[in-house]
Amino acid sequence: MEFFQDVHRTTIFLLILQSWSLAFSSVYNRLPYFTNYFFDNFLLIYEDTSVGASITQLLARDPDEDSLVFGVSGIEGNRYFAVESQTGIVWLKLPLDRETKSEFIVEFSVSDNQGVVKGTVNIQVGDVNDNAPTFHNQPYSVRIPEDTPVGTPIYIINATDPDQGVGGTILFSFQPASQFFAIDAVRGVVTVIRPLDYETTQAYQLQVNATDQDKNKPLSTLANLAVIVTDVQDMDPVFINLPYSTNIYENSAPGTIVRMITAIDQDRGKPRGIGYTIVSGNKNSIFALDYISGALTLNGPLDRENPLYSSGFVLTVKGTELNEDRSPSNATVNTTFNILVIDLNDNAPEFNRSEYTVSITELAQVGFALPLFIQVQDKDEGTNSMFDVYLVGANSNHFIISPTAVQGKADIRVRVAEPLDYERLSHYEFSLFANETFSDHVGLASVKIDLINENDNRPIFSQSLYNISLFENATVGMSVLRVIEDHVTQDPEGCKWTNHMTLLTYG
């Protein structure tokens, strides 16, 4: 019993001693304190720090050299950071992004198991060039007229980079460079640098490059700028399907369509209609040109043999762009239109006179050309104007002609083919024919030739031998014989004379 009493007394003593020690230590315990510089300044951590990486180590001292325990408190602190309790090493639990959150106010603690000390640290997130420039208000598109002057600003590209310093400084450029547009590297202003032409290019697709100026790892972003060029009425019309040249038969009926003439407005954005007119070359207004359709038609009878039409036509035609009210504008174009009239065999050969008369001496030699101006012509052309010429009539074989085969037009020569004799035939009359080779067209003229008598015959006695008888008592001076000499001549008045001769003899 006494033993148990001693044990009880001892236990009570120990409890009293422990309680006293605790009370004494709480009264006399010295708290630990942090020694890191950033508790009085700030801690810089770059935003590209990897998750799980050590970012710092908490340092503390305890005057009593008690064991220390480190920790972090607060929702945000515990979310992003973890502290190794024994070593005080702080490591990152989540990725950082300066552009989202640039600083943290974190409360760390250190404890010596008797007291806890807390310290607040301002953790600054350092910038890293981890953001490429960002374009705003896309898509980019602008419409400009083709006559926009060189140097005119047409668009402003807007881009930003949330990084700091040179990593957030942006320069603009076109990739590839444009021959017609330039962009201000700093302001992003797009301007026209060369004249535009809708008829050549209606749209440009430009690629804009925005690059930050970080020297180690520059980042860039691309965007498209569509420049749509709108048409302006700055082009004259143009004829299509040139050159204009056609043929038309001379027997074509009025109203026949010769050719459709077509011009177009080269301003293709909103092309205007065309009005057509004939400027020159329309002899006798033989052609009509529809103002709206451009149909060229024959306006009257056509005859290739007409001197005005035989060489064809060279029309000057004008196309005029029409305003919305159909009034003519100042935009015009001219062209020439060659029209050849095709011949038909519709003409017979014609002599220059219907009758030819001439007088020639009967002494004209064979081959002698009669002094006649005979001309024959077929006004058609080519094979349509080929014909033969010949003489027809009694005794026409006494003469020959040349040429006998003609194309188009010829002078005909009539020549003596046989010796002539007034005393046998003093007058010729025959026909001159021109007959086409390939048709029944015939030309006709008459030829009359009178021979002029010449003294080309000796006198002729009526008998070659005369026998007479005389009485013996014939007296001197008696006419014993009458001799007749036939010598026919013709005087200029056309009268014929006979000469007589009487021979007187004596008995």
Furnish the topology, listing elements before pairings.
Elements: H1 2-28, E1 33-34, E2 43-46, E3 54-57, E4 60-61, E5 69-73, H2 75-80, E6 81-83, E7 89-92, E8 103-111, E9 116-126, E10 134-135, E11 140-145, E12 153-156, E13 159-160, E14 170-174, E15 181-183, E16 189-192, E17 203-212, E18 220-230, E19 238-239, E20 244-249, E21 257-260, E22 263-264, E23 274-280, E24 287-289, E25 295-298, E26 313-322, E27 328-342, E28 350-351, E29 355-361, E30 374-377, E31 386-392, E32 399-402, E33 405-407, E34 409-416, E35 427-436, E36 442-452, E37 460-461, E38 479-486, E39 489-490, E40 496-497, E41 500-504
Parallel strand pairs: 2-9, 11-18, 20-27, 29-36
Antiparallel strand pairs: 1-4, 3-7, 5-8, 6-7, 8-9, 10-13, 12-16, 14-17, 15-16, 17-18, 19-22, 21-25, 23-26, 24-25, 26-27, 28-30, 30-34, 31-33, 31-35, 32-34, 35-36, 37-38, 38-41, 39-40
